[in-house]
Amino acid sequence: MKIAMFIDAFFPRVNGVVISVQSYATELTRLGHQVCVVCPTYTEEQQRSAFYNEDKDKKSVFQILRIPSSPFIWSKEDRAGRLDKWFYLKKQVDLFKPDVVHINTEGNLGLYGRLYAHHRSIPYVYTMHTLWEEYVANYAFFLPEFTSKGIARTIEHAFLKHASQVIVPTKHIEEVAVRYGVSCPVVLLPTGIPDLMEKYSLLRERHMRRMFFKKFPKAFGKKILLYAGRIAKEKNIPFLFDAFDEIHRTNPNTVLILVGSGAELDNLKAAAAQTPCADSIYFTGYIRNNDMLYFYRLATVFVFASKTETQGLVTLEAMTAGLPVVAIGEMGTIDVMQGDNGGFMVKEDTIEFARKVNLLLSDTDLRKRKIAEGKRWSRKWSIMELTPKLVQYYENAIAYHKNKHSK
Asked: How far apart are CA 320 and CA 264, in angstroms?
């Protein structure tokens, strides 16, 4: 089968949807399917800052089609596919001749995916990865909340209305999709987690440890609390600073490491510098996805405070790598942890959060039990187990489209 995946962000931009598309495209290719990821171009500066360049596209196991883009007015990290490149895109995708289109985002390239599927009379599958009602205020901050949410609902409805198959990663998003209005079948498919140990290298781990402690020598010999993800407002990172202050009073031999980059990096560095534990909080900046395993293995506890996650996949990654998790139990985190599986799911309360982290730091037997529990729990989200289901959903979409248009 030939699948064209449309997405409005891709490497060097990193977020949950990017990782989802990359993971499924890789596994689909391994199973013998052909995949073309249609995504925007990025500036040389963005590629350099993320240690990524277009030569890496050529080494990808699946095809990557970059569409010329322009700066995204509300986010310096993102790009918008140019609206004057429709005919160029159509010509390039025609060369690939997809059997099905898979739309993963709702921006210009998502729109192009819808148009292409309509013009070529082929089905499109739409994955509703994100609750844009919750996120849109962070971008369209100049609009009243009811206006921005209304726009988000209208856009989502347009994608849901004409799809031949709708995929949702959680039950909560399924409920929202039905409320927005959808005529085709809606199915549940979480984003799969790749086997992080598949590319493990002892030499690489030793190198990463040396580089890390060379950069942060004061962290050597300390217990490491790790956050990984975008450094953005919606990640609720200041909560971690407050919780860490409480943790540090009981366990002064700890440091907080924040791995990732994003629009709020400079602001949060400045905020961290004003905290009582400023000399024990470190920011690594962008780390390649393939190297994240070594940071998980370096840490003692994974800490996560986001309240707007669609899925909270990074908590599953941490569990897969053998790291117990303490996270605020809201939205996607509830769906993936479903309680205290692999760690502790707590309320947004710094005292409770700190108490659970300190428990894992002090009780070695408990920590070992939570590590084993997390590894077992995270297997439910294995990319190898979930990808055959995605193939079935593509086949369902093709059959649904054929039946609909034969009437």
From this structure: 28
Residues of the chain with pLDDT under 50: none
Report which residue type is found at 259: V
What count of other Cβ atoms lies within 10 Å of the Cβ of residue 252? 10
- What was the pLDDT predicted at 141? 61
As a whole number of angstroms, the distance between CA 265 and CA 283 comes to: 8
- How distant, in Å, are the alpha carbons of 11, 40, 125, 232 from that of 8? 11, 6, 16, 18
Name every residue whose Cβ is closer than 8 Å to that of residue 382 and which is 6 or more positions away in sequence.
192, 193, 195
Rounded-to-integer distance, Cα 314 and Cα 265, Å? 19
Q: Are 206 and 283 in contact (CB under 8 A)?
A: no
**CA-to-CA dists, residue 367 to 218, 348, 375, angstroms:** 24, 22, 12
Residue 93: both structure tokens together: 């995708």
CA distances from 297 to 202, 225, 252, 300 (A): 12, 11, 21, 8
> E strand or H helix at 45, and its extent?
helix 44-49
How far, in Å, are 237, 328, 365, 376, 390 from residue 361 at the CA level? 21, 18, 10, 21, 39
- Contact between 97 and 42 under an 8 Å Cβ cutoff? The reply is no
Q: What are phi and psi of 258, to 5 degrees?
A: -115, 115
Report which residue type is found at 179. Answer: R
- Please state, in angstroms and rounded to a whole number, the distance separating the CA atoms of residues 36 and 55: 16
Beta strand 325-328 with 301-304 is: parallel
- Per residue in 70-103, pLDDT (tens digit) is 998 777 778 999 999 999 999 999 999 999 999 9
Amino acid at 379: R
**Residues facing 281 on adjacent strands:** 256
Per the CB < 8 A criterion, the answer to whether 320 and 193 are in contact is: yes
Q: What pLDDT, on the 0 to 100 scale, is given for residue 1? A: 97
For β-strands 79-81 and 69-71, DSSP reports them as antiparallel
